[in-house]
């Protein structure tokens, strides 16, 4: 309903009603998108959808340095690098692998 057809008293009532009920008042009767802002935020629901990640071994080592925890993945990675070095095939440095010299088209 446009407010051009309303009397000044009806406009005042509409303003007062908007103030009482926490709505937006638009004297031109234009859409404001205020109904979207009235909806509750859903951030907590979205975050609560996924379970919390358990602490990793590296985080536990950082939190409790006196426990001498072993990260089996890291130990295995270091063992593999050491065996490759003994065989004379260490991992390549960044940007020095097979594809480093290929030209971009």
Automatic annotation (TrEMBL):
Keywords linked to the UniProt accession? Mitochondrion, Ribonucleoprotein, Ribosomal protein
Native species: Dispira parvispora
Example of a GO cellular component annotation carried by this entry: ribonucleoprotein complex
Residue ranges under compositional bias (Basic residues)? 86-105
Q: Does the keyword Ribonucleoprotein apply?
A: yes
Region (Disordered) residue spans: 81-105
Question: Where found?
Answer: Mitochondrion
User: Where, if anywhere, are coiled coils annotated?
Assistant: none
Q: Name one Pfam family in it.
A: MRP-S33
Report the protein name in the record. Small ribosomal subunit protein mS33
**Protein family (similarity comment):** Belongs to the mitochondrion-specific ribosomal protein mS33 family.
Q: Which InterPro entries match?
A: Ribosomal_mS33 (IPR013219)
């Amino acid at each position: 309903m446009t407010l051009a057809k309303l009397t000044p008293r009806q406009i005042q009532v509409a303003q007062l009603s908007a103030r009482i009920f926490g709505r937006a008042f638009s004297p031109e009767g234009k859409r404001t998108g205020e109904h979207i802002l009235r909806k509750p935020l859903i951030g907590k629901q979205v975050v609560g959808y996924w379970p919390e990640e358990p602490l990793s071994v590296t985080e536990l080592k950082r939190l409790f340095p006196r426990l001498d925890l072993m990260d089996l993945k890291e130990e295995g990675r270091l063992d593999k690098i050491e065996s490759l070095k003994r065989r004379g095939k260490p991992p390549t440095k960044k940007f020095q692998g097979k594809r480093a010299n290929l030209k971009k088209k």
